[in-house]
Each structure stands twice: as C-alpha cells, then as structure tokens.
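[09:14] KT: can someone run the structure on this one? pasting the chain below
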Amino acid sequence: MKRWFRSLLFLALAVSVLTVTVFADMGPKPQLTVKVVNPPEEPYYLDILAEGNYADNTNPFDGLEWSYSDEEIAALDQDLLKALRAAVPEGWHACTAEGSTGAPMWGDLYPNEKGLHIFGYMGVPKTYRILMVTKSGESWISEPYVRPSLQSSVKVDWAKKQAFAPPASMSYGLQFLSTLLPTLILEGALFLLMGFNKSKRNILIFLAANLITQVCLFLVLGVTILQRGLGFSYYMRFFPMELFILVSETWVYRRFFQEESKTWSTLYGIAANLLSAIAGWFLAEPVWRFIVSIS
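[09:31] RB: done, structure tokens below
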C-alpha cells in the first residue's frame, strides 16, 4: 500500500514540473476590488497605495491617464485629488492618483455604478494599503495587506475605520474543498450505484485514493488558479492532471478493491473520474469567481 502512495506523489510532482508555462500577458490579470460599507455622506476618493515614494519610480505610468479620459480627468475634484495626494504617507505612493510602479494599472477613485472601487492590470501591487479622503478633509489609511490570490477583494467599513481582508488560508482552503467535496459526492454515488461491496477496506481505499489525488490536484491546479487566475495555464495543466488521476485511481481500485472483478473496478475507475473531470471543468470558473468575490 505504501508503494502506490509514493508512486502517486512522485507522478504528481512530475506532472507539475513538465506542465507547459504560458506567456505572462496571457489570461487573467491582477485585480483588487474594494467595497465600502457605511460610506461617507459626502464625496470622497479612494486609492490603493504601493510601497516606495512616487519620486523613486524610474518609469512611472500616470494612473489618471490610464484610468480616465481627458474629459473625466478635467471633471475630477482637483481639491479632493490634491488632499488625497497630500495624505499619502512617507514611503508609499498612490497608484491611481500619482502613478503605478512602472506597470500600467486602472483604478476607480470614486465608486463605479456597482458601488465598487476596482483596481486592475499588471501594476496592482501585491502589498497594498487603502487610503480614503473626504471632501471635508477627513482621511483614513489602512494597515498593509497582501493580496492572497491573483484577484481578490477587501471590504472597508468607513464608520468603523476598519478594513477586512480574508486570510490567504481561507482562499486556499475553499479552493481545495471545491474540488474534494464534489468529487467525493459524485464518485461516491457512482460507487453505490454500481453495487460495490461497502466493506471498511473498500471505503478506506476509495477515500484514501481520492484524498491523495485531490491533494495532488490542488497543488498543481488549485494553486495555479489562485495565483494566476483561470487562464490558459490552468487548462494546459487540467488535461494531463486529470489523466494522471484517472490512471492512478483506476489502477488502485483494480488492484485493491475486495470481492470485485478487475473489469468492474476498471470500469468504475474510468467512469468515476470522467464524471468528476467533467464536473470540474464546468465548475472551475463559477467556483473561482466565488472565491475571488469573498477573498
């Protein structure tokens, strides 16, 4: 039993190393969504800050020109914009109001039609702070946060002067459960429908095989989708990884299931993994969107 456990882990590592890496500009881009609850009753601007003084940037992109048209820039409240820039602490710079760190980024100083401030593209910093300044001159700045995934969100409660950014562990935990639980339900239901012996040994083999392969799947695909988004890189890894799981689990069931024919166990391994692979394909995007919206 220990030998096939080691074999599964070895093959998973081999798949992850040999998987194709895509160009950096393909697929989803970094994004941070800020939602303000109990917002000020007066006009305000909100920006995200990145480490480093603005004057230290060697090739900055003007955030305003990337984010707004000439007409929109002319319509901005210049006094409020000036107050926001003046409130930026030493050692930081405002990504939209001043400029990004050498890579382009779009940002919403004021909330969009959905009431959200969205900052997106390559210049979104990994470590950031949130700065809010109102028309009357009141300001608030958050502590530093680190984006847990390629695209994430944070909630700001203006009344309490607090920001809440879910920990990275929540994103990774949800991603792992999003593949583990549907797989156990679908493959478990098929196990019962095909009339397999529900002995303790068979059930433990079923659970162990799925747990190990799901850990491998998470390390190869789950981490990829959180760090790079649901793009070409994810789908390039999807097919070889699912094939590896199908072959591995089918071999395990065929070799270790008690009181079952090898042919019937083989058919189950193939059918169960095709079923869970199809489900994983269609669930990938909505699950990722959900995790991004709450993480």
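[09:33] KT: thanks! The mean pLDDT is 85.
[09:34] RB: yep, looked fine to me
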